[in-house]
Each structure stands twice: as C-alpha cells, then as structure tokens.
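Q: Convert this sequence to structure tokens.
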Amino acid sequence: MTEAAIQPTGAHRWQAVAALVFGACVIGFSGILVRLTETGPVAAGFWRLAVALPALAVITRRSSGTLGRPSRIAMIAGVMFALDLGFWHEGIKYTSVASATVLSNLTPVVVTAFAWIFLKQRPRALFLAAVAVALAGVWMMAVGRSGGGHLLNARLGDLFSILTALWYALYFLAISEGRKREGASRLMFWSGMVGAPLLLIVSALLGEQITPLSAAGWAACAGLGLVHVAGQGSIAWGLGRLPTSTASVVVLVQPVVAAWLGWLLFGEALGPVQAAGAAVALAGVVLAQWASRPARSPGAVSPA
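A:
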C-alpha cells in the first residue's frame, strides 16, 4: 500500500483494476466466515476490524513511519463501514449468503450518482449501460436464489442487505476522497479504530454472543481480519487510482464469488437463472472497464 494516490495511466490503471478484482474475490469469503464465527452478526463485524488493526498498524508504520492522527474523512469512513458491516451481517443471518452479498452490492447505483453530482465525475453513456448490465446480472442472481429452505427471514435479510448498499457507497466515496491525501493503510487503520468500538457497543446492546465458542470460531474471526487487511486493503489501494464509479462496478465480482462459495459450503444451490446472472454481472464489469478507459488524445502513439 503506497502512501499517495496517483493518476491512473497505462500499467498503473491495470494494476489498480487487478487490485480491485483481487480484493473483491477475497472479500467474497467474508460472508462465509461470518456464519462460522459462532458470534452474533454485529460482533463478527467487531472481530473483523479488531483482528485487522495490529497488522494495519504495522503496515502503516512501515509505509509512513507513524500512525499520525485520524483525519475527519477517516472517521466518517469508520462510521459508514461500521454501519455497512452491521447491516450486512444481519442480512447474512436472515437470508442466503448469495443474496446478502448481491443486494449489498447495488452500491454502483449510489456511487455513480454521488460521483456525478458531487465529485463532477460525469460517466459516459456506455458506462451507464455497463452499470445497468452488471446490475441486471445482480438482480438475476437475487431472484434466482435457492436458499435450501432454511432461511430465517429472507425478506428482512434482503432489506438489511439493500440498506447495506447505501452505507457501503458512502464508505466507498469517503475512502476515495481520503485517498487523495492519505495512504490506504492509514485510512484503513483509523477507520477501523473508529468502527470497531461502535460495533462492540451495538453488539452488547443487542445482547449478542460476543466471543466465539470454540477454536473454529476464533479461527473464523482471525480469517475475517485477514480478509479485511488483504481484501478491503486492496480495494482501498485501488480506489486511489481509479474513478470511484468505475471501482464500484469492478467489485461486483464479489457477489459472484460469494454465490459460488455459498453453493459449495452451505448447499445454497445456484439455479440456471442465478448462474446466468453471474455471467451477466461479470460481462457488465468488463464492459464498464472498457467504457471507462482513458480516452486517447488525437495523434497519440502507443508506447513501444
């Protein structure tokens, strides 16, 4: 994680895309790990951030020499991410892993609108079409869900997951703005320092099981921390090098990974509609990347 964001040109752009895809694939494991923690859903969010903090502190010290002080944007990101994790994990509790991840990734709609209105990142018409294609695939995955008949309350879980998209979009925008002035690791560290105690307090107020009940549960908590550092850290790094709206579409790779893992581990079968939706969502991601590539100036010559 480098300390300063740079403009995406040439190889730098594709490094950022690769980081986002990698991060989205890693984050796809988080929904599975939440179910294995043996804690309450909000408590699982606390452990995800708490376990990650020591590693993020070390990375930040190595990259910048000091942890510094939390910026206002890092504090905002921490609050938004705490809300994101709390609502998403509650969604996973009531509905399928695939649906919770799919619906929470309606983020590109919110991010594109905010980036267009407030950050003056006006999207091309083809990019908007790509967002529509990706979201159509997401919708197909949701309606094609097969939860195996053991879901507690799919509608409530889906509602929590849809609300998650709002919090995740605001987190995305905060991190993207913060990356103009700060390194990814420092933003991640201080947002975690803000979000972790908030999640712990809410978990206690809800009367959740806060600590895991077995070694397997602790291992799942450790896995969540690792996923946060590697996955969310890669996404934060990539956000400093790509337009926010473009990055939000790339991470739609996440629900595809989550759906596959839910089928593999929990028997949440992928029906033909859901499988087709995954393919459509990925096609939308590829189209969005093609549509958002930097325009070549007239007379420009490709480097040898």
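Residues 11-291 form one domain.
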